[in-house]
């Protein structure tokens, strides 16, 4: 097994950035990660503190690169390798493939195995397999297990060599013996699926566990996912958490994100908001887009943390800027809710819609229908709503039913409306269930059927749909297909009214005013009428106006 000493490089970097006020310096250090780096925890703490405070000072990583270059110019092979790595990845400087390869080559001439592997990777990426295999072979001869593993990957994929699972497996075995933990993950994978070897799932699982314990964080993430989602093993969230933790503590951002998500308690695990925030934030500050999105939602909804809309939008925007499609949609939706830059909000929603997000497509259609952040365009509204529905999205199907019901961008067609309301309803969408129920009441696009109406309205109401509760209240109030029962109707109206349904607020106010189904109470009648009027409900306004005039005439 080949060993390396990067202590001098680590010292040079930390000397340059240790007192920096620039978050990117510490983010870059965590990515650069010299072997044996002694400041990883401190760098992560500094990065989190700077992100929380919003501080963004001048970067000093270029100073670290200058110090490494000075050492490399003296002929130090390790420094030459790190110069190649710096220029390969753009650590503190502009990335340059040509300059990186030049430094790698200088280190190769001095027998630096890591430089051989990285230069071989560059050749393989450019389909120069002869050069890649030569360099991998040189590094493997020096005991670099990573090189032997990489040869195995070429045999597995059939790139530059004839595909051979047997040769790949032998390379993985040799790489494992040379100390490369990722090779153990691949041996385990091949055994579990029976690819090129007799299938043996327990032995495959054992290999993946050995790889994880040997330091392969990809194996930790794989095991965590397997136990969380019951992939080839019985579901065990405690086991998932322990494997994620093993990877997270070694700095793996995927494991940190998954561990933080489990601590939010959405899948039966005990909730621990402090731990959730700790691990999600560690991944988020290192630009893990999904962790940023989850962190943003955590702040927006106050999930075991003080609600903070500013922080919520900040992290959603960071995720969106990294290309997270769902974050683009959520950011636009939140900006619309907050009444901020409606045109900018629609641009984020549109970006997600163009990327194929069904929820964003439906939301964009609504924006075109309402003229919210864009000019009213019913045809565009129909197009985007239809695209979302074609993906089978329950809300998209509901919206498509609504466009046919209301004739938005297309001729009104109750039969088609019912078709899409039903598809949405059968997928459990409360709005689709409520609308389908109303269609059965009024015989719109379907034969009138009060029993079916009650069935779908009850399902919607059970999910908290206010319109469904109000509609059931109206059926009970007027005795449409059911025995008239104003008292029971008042309970349904109250349920809907408390959820903000203006019609229900008006009807409840009327019941109080008339003493129908509950004790007469003019004060409560006015309270609910005023709530309905505040939502511009015309009948409530008329009632309030009439009662005000009557009170004046009696004064």
Give a topology summary.
Layout (H helix, E strand, L loop, with lengths): L6 H11 L5 H10 L7 H14 L7 H13 L3 H13 L7 H12 L4 H13 L3 H13 L3 H13 L7 H13 L3 H13 L7 H13 L3 H13 L7 H12 L4 H11 L9 H12 L4 H13 L7 H13 L3 H14 L3 H13 L3 H13 L7 H13 L3 H13 L7 H13 L3 H13 L7 H13 L3 H13 L7 H13 L3 H13 L7 H13 L3 H17 L1
Helix pairs in contact: 1-4, 2-3, 4-5, 5-6, 6-7, 7-8, 8-9, 9-10, 10-11, 11-12, 12-13, 13-14, 14-15, 15-16, 16-17, 17-18, 18-19, 19-20, 20-21, 21-22, 22-23, 23-24, 24-25, 25-26, 26-27, 27-28, 28-29, 29-30, 30-31
Q: Overview of this structure, please?
A:
This protein has 555 residues and is mostly helical. Among the domains are: 215-322, Serine Threonine Protein Phosphatase 5, Tetratricopeptide repeat (Alpha Horseshoe); 478-555, Tetratricopeptide repeat domain (Serine Threonine Protein Phosphatase 5, Tetratricopeptide repeat). 72% of the residues lie in helices and 0% in strands. The chain has 31 helices and no strands. The radius of gyration is 32 Å and the shape is elongated. The model has no long low-confidence stretch (mean pLDDT 95).
CA-based shape: elongated
Second-tier CATH architecture of the domain at 215-322: Alpha Horseshoe
Helix content: over 70%
Describe the sheet with the most strands: none
Protein traits:
Serine Threonine Protein Phosphatase 5, Tetratricopeptide repeat; mainly alpha; 0% strand; 555 residues
Brief sketch in words of this structure:
With 555 residues, this protein is an all-alpha fold.
């Amino acid at each position: 097994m080949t060993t390396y000493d990067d202590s001098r490089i680590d010292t040079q970097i930390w000397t340059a950035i240790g007192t920096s006020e620039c978050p990117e310096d510490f983010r870059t250090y965590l990515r650069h990660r010299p072997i044996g780096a002694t400041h990883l925890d401190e760098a992560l703490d500094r990065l989190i503190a700077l992100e929380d405070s919003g501080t963004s000072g001048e970067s000093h990583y270029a100073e670290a690169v200058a110090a490494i270059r000075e050492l490399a110019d003296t002929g130090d092979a390790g420094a030459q390798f790190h110069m190649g790595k710096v220029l390969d990845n753009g650590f503190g400087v502009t990335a340059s493939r040509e300059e990186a390869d030049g430094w790698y080559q200088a280190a190769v001439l001095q027998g630096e195995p890591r430089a051989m592997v990285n230069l071989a990777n560059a050749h393989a990426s450019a389909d120069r397999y002869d050069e890649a295999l030569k360099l991998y072979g040189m590094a493997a001869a020096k005991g670099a297990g990573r090189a032997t593993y990489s040869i195995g990957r070429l045999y597995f994929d059939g790139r530059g060599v004839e595909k051979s699972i047997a040769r790949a497996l032998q390379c993985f075995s040799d790489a494992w013996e040379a100390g490369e933990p990722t090779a153990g993950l691949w041996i385990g994978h091949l055994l579990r699926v029976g690819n090129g070897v007799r299938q043996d799932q327990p032995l495959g699982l054992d290999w993946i566990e050995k790889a994880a314990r040997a330091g392969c964080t990809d194996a930790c993430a794989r095991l965590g996912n397997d136990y969380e989602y019951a992939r080839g093993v019985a579901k065990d969230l405690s086991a998932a958490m322990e494997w994620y933790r093993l990877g997270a503590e070694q700095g793996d951002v995927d494991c940190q994100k998954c561990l933080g998500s489990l601590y939010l308690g959405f899948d039966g695990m005990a909730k621990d908001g402090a731990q959730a925030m700790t691990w999600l934030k560690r991944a988020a500050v290192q630009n893990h887009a999904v962790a940023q999105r989850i962190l943003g939602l955590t702040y927006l909804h106050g999930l075991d943390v003080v609600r903070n809309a500013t922080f919520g939008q900040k992290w959603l925007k960071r995720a969106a800027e990294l290309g997270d499609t769902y974050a683009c949609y959520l950011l636009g939706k939140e900006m619309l809710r907050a009444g901020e830059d409606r045109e900018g909000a629609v641009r984020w929603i549109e970006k997600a819609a163009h990327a194929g997000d069904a929820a964003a497509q439906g939301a964009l259609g609504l924006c075109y229908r309402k003229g919210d952040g864009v000019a009213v365009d019913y045809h565009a509204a129909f197009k985007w709503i239809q695209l979302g529905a074609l993906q089978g999205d329950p809300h998209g199907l509901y919206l498509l039913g609504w466009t046919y019901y209301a004739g938005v961008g297309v001729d009104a067609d109750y039969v088609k409306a019912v078709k899409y309301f039903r598809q949405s309803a059968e997928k459990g969408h409360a709005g689709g269930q409520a609308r389908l129920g109303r269609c059965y009441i009024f015989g719109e696009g379907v034969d009138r059927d009060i029993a079916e109406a009650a069935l779908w309205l009850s399902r919607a109401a059970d999910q908290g749909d206010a319109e469904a509760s109000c509609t059931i209240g109206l059926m009970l109030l007027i005795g449409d297909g059911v025995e008239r029962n104003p008292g029971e109707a008042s309970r349904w109206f109250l349920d809907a009214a408390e959820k903000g349904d203006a019609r229900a607020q008006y009807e409840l106010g009327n019941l109080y005013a008339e003493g129908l189904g509950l004790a007469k109470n003019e004060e409560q009648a006015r309270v609910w009428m005023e709530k309905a009027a505040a939502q511009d409900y015309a009948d409530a306004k008329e009632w309030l106006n009439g009662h005000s005039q009557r009170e004046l005439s009696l004064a």
